[in-house]
Amino acid sequence: MTFDRTGIILYTKEYLKCVDFYQNIIGLSKMFETEYLTCFKFGEAYLMVELDSEQTDELNKTERIKNCK
Questions:
Q1: Which residues contact 39 (CB under 8 A, 6 or more apart)?
Q2: Residue 67 has pLDDT above 80, yes or no
Q3: Mean pLDDT of 13-37
Q4: End-to-end alpha carbon distance in the chain
Q5: Is beta strand 7-12 parallel, antiparallel or unpaired with respect to 45-51?
Q6: In terms of CB atoms within 10 Å, which of 29, 47, 61, 69 comes out highest?
Q7: Where would I find the beta strands (DSSP E) of 1-69?
Q8: Which domains does the chain have, with CATH numbers?
């Protein structure tokens, strides 16, 4: 088995504040974003920040992206 990239998924109730922190304070670059998920470049890995699914009934399994390419 080979891996293209490893990463960390961070679920948060404070999604917008968390995205702001990693983008504007830490200085990470966005790879992509959706309404409830932002994926940042994190060295050779990624950091995925996602709204905790308990915070919205709009998310379902088909809408949740689980990798950054």
A1: 30, 31, 32, 33, 46, 47, 48, 49, 65, 68
A2: no
A3: 96
A4: 17
A5: parallel
A6: 47
A7: 7-12, 30-33, 37-42, 45-51
A8: 7-63 (3.10.180.10)
